[in-house]
Write a structure and sequence with these properties.
This protein has 200 residues and is mostly helical. The chain contains 10 helices and no strands.
């Protein structure tokens, strides 16, 4: 990229490039040079917008977490409509797209990145998965208030079960979708008790 040429929305261009590199090369292959080559920009562009590469990666993850915030609003808006299992299965499928799964691997892989993310969002657990767990728990809390699951349902534990199992279903598949019906089966099994007991 010639010097002096303005790049429209350079941050997003770099984020998109980083996601492509991460999907193709994994955490080991995600370097500042690989990102700038993929984005088609000079290496200095990244350092003009971010203090260092770990700062860039932290912003990449925080950008993905912001997307979870949007997904959470949509999921909570679905409370009281459709079926609880259907809403949860759809949310898990949307949540664990190949980029999100790769970003979780990146967070686990890089100690410095985890440390920076904990400074930015001091919540326990693995960043991204922790926010996803909160999203599911909040939705289940709404459904509990509406009487669609048992009044004594432990929504925090249910959310942990769904996110942990969902991550295992999608992790390491390298673009291969989960087996048809696998997400529905997991969700139905995890919430079966609280759905049945609301009818008693």
């Amino acid at each position: 990229m010639p010097t002096g040429v303005h790049i429209r929305d350079a941050r997003q261009q770099l984020f998109d490039a980083a996601e492509r590199v991460l999907l193709r090369e994994g955490p080991n292959g995600l370097t500042s040079r690989a990102v700038t080559i993929e984005a088609g920009v000079a290496k200095g562009v990244l350092h003009r917008h971010f203090a260092d590469f770990d700062a860039f990666l932290a912003e990449l993850v925080l950008d993905r977490i912001a997307q979870i915030d949007d997904q959470a609003a949509a999921l909570r808006a679905s409370a009281g409509t459709g079926t609880v299992a259907g809403n949860l299965a759809g949310a898990l499928a949307d949540l664990f797209d190949s980029v999100a799964v790769a970003i979780v691997s990146l967070v686990i892989f890089r100690d410095e990145l985890r440390a920076r993310l904990r400074q930015a969002r001091p919540t326990p657990g693995i960043p991204l998965l922790a926010e996803a767990t909160t999203m599911i728990a909040s939705y289940l809390g709404d459904e509990r208030e509406m009487g669609r699951i048992a009044a004594d349902a432990d929504v925090d534990t249910l959310a942990l079960s769904l996110i942990g199992t969902g991550h295992l279903l999608f992790a390491g598949r390298e673009g291969i979708p989960a087996e048809p019906g696998a997400v529905d089966k997991v969700v139905t099994t995890v919430i079966a008790d609280v759905v049945q007991r609301r009818l008693l």
